[in-house]
């Protein structure tokens, strides 16, 4: 069924009922889905249903779905919600603001209400379904599944990966003019490259609104007023390039460790929701960006990912996320993007679980939806 989205995203139209535009904050995606669904199901009025949890008594519960700031996650969550409501007829689907998906440990804890897999808790978790959990290669989560706390419902798309990016035109011109290979972190040790990536601090400050992410900044050692200065930039940042990033909860503590363990002359500026606005006004000036696949940013400007040293077997990004030391000294891993659900979903609402297990976006479809998402404007 999801494959039909691929056909219909190509159709543009603005004749969709107003109620859809109010209900869904990603109007373009929603309008297209409404179109597909009305076409293929023509159901008119689906019988209204609730998620029933069978225990000593029967409780009617909302279906709580994780919703983060990542555009790809917003798309898959909206698609799931629309299908749950309009096809299966569930009345009470709630999107819960939850940033746990980048840390599989935290995501599994959130989905179970448990600290670890040896847990007999019967609490109803804050989030019951997460459509995009980043699972690094080799990470073992089977104990959670074997303990019947969660189910793993397959991948949502091809892999996801964070990285440091430069505009491709800048990388090319450094090669053409100076024979500098700039798609490698070593380029950030060259004065001639760093010198071109300095930014006007006061101008950036005017875009920083730290109330957007105050708590996640406090979690990162050295994050002050939306900035993090690498060890070499503390006294004076006149030799330091600026890494532009959105929110500190996007691996901010791992970035701090990369900067300090590799000894880079880099400061980080977290620009929150203003990031895309700031880089859209760079007008040919080169800049250094924290970004990831799949995301909307790399689609507007052609960006090239810098490679970092490969990780030795003993270094784990999961450990790095809670480390206060300068432990992580290597590249971000390519992660699997997996769907997980609280075990009681499959036990009590097998149709919901079946639907979740069937949702998948191939790379091209996701790229189209990300472009639409960006142009349609979301939250
Ligand atoms: C699991 O967490 C509980 C506390 O929530 C703790 O007492 C127990 O030792 C932990 N078990 C393992 C295997 O880590
Ligand atoms: C670099 O050189 C190649 C081949 O000579 C050319 O195609 C490309 O446009 C140049 N790029 C820039 C940014 O100068
Ligand atoms: C930085 O930007 C501010 C405001 O736009 C400007 O007044 C100032 O001269 C700039 N500083 C530098 C060093 O370019
Ligand atoms: C800063 O962010 C907060 C929380 O998102 C928002 O309420 C406020 O309007 C923002 N302030 C400015 C000046 O944009
Ligand atoms: C990095 O910063 C230090 C000052 O902390 C400076 O001495 C050094 O030259 C800088 N390195 C580069 C490549 O600019």
Explain the overall architecture.
Keywords: Signal. With 379 residues, this protein is an alpha+beta fold. 36% of the residues lie in helices and 18% in strands. The protein has 17 helices and 14 strands. The chain has a 7-stranded mixed sheet. Strands 5-14-6 form a 3-stranded antiparallel sheet, with helices on both faces. It has a two-stranded antiparallel ribbon with strand order 1-2. Helix 11 links the parallel strand 10 and strand 11. The protein is elongated and about 70 Å long. The chain starts with a helix and ends with a helix. The N terminus is likely disordered. The chain binds 2-acetamido-2-deoxy-beta-D-glucopyranose (5 copies). One 2-acetamido-2-deoxy-beta-D-glucopyranose binds next to helix 7. The site of one 2-acetamido-2-deoxy-beta-D-glucopyranose has 3 residues, from helix 9.
Would you summarize the structure shown here?
By secondary structure, this protein is α+β, with helices and mostly antiparallel strands. It contains 17 helices and 14 strands.
Spell out the key features of this protein.
alpha+beta, binds 2-acetamido-2-deoxy-beta-D-glucopyranose, disordered N terminus, 379 residues, three-stranded antiparallel beta sheet, 36% helix, seven-stranded mixed beta sheet
């Amino acid at each position: 069924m999801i494959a039909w989205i691929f056909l219909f995203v190509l159709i543009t139209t603005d004749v969709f009922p107003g109620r859809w535009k109010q209900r869904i904050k990603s109007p373009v995606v929603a309008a297209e889905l409404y179109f597909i669904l009305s076409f293929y199901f023509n159901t008119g009025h689906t019988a209204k249903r609730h998620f029933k949890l069978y225990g000593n008594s029967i409780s009617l519960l909302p279906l709580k779905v994780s919703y983060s700031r990542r555009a790809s996650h917003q798309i898959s969550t909206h698609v799931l919600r629309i299908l749950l409501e309009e096809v299966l007829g569930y009345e009470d689907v709630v999107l819960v603001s939850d940033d746990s998906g980048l840390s599989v440990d935290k995501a599994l804890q959130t989905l179970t209400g448990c600290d670890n897999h040896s847990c007999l808790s019967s609490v109803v978790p804050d989030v019951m379904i997460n459509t995009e959990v980043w699972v690094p290669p080799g990470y073992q989560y089977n104990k959670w599944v074997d303990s019947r706390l969660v189910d793993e419902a397959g991948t949502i798309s091809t892999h996801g990966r964070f990285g440091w990016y430069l505009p491709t035109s800048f990388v090319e011109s450094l090669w053409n003019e100076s024979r500098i290979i700039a798609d490698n972190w070593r380029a950030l040790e060259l004065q001639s490259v760093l010198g071109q990536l300095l930014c006007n601090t006061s101008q950036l400050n005017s875009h920083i609104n730290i109330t957007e992410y105050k708590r996640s900044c406090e979690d990162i050692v050295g994050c002050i007023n939306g900035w993090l200065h690498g060890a070499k930039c503390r006294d004076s940042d006149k030799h330091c390039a600026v890494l532009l990033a959105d929110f500190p909860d996007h691996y901010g503590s791992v970035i701090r460790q990369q900067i300090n363990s590799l000894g880079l002359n880099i400061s980080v500026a977290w620009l929150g929701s203003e990031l895309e606005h700031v880089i859209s006004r760079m007008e040919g000036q080169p800049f250094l960006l924290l970004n990831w696949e799949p995301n909307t940013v790399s689609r507007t400007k052609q960006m090239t990912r810098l490679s970092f040293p490969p990780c030795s077997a003993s270094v784990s990004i999961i450990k790095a996320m809670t480390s206060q030391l300068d432990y992580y000294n290597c590249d971000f891993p390519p992660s699997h993007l997996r769907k997980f659900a609280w075990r009681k979903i499959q036990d009590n609402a097998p149709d919901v679980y079946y639907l979740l297990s069937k949702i998948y976006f191939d790379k091209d479809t996701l790229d189209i939806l990300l472009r639409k998402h960006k142009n349609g404007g979301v939250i």
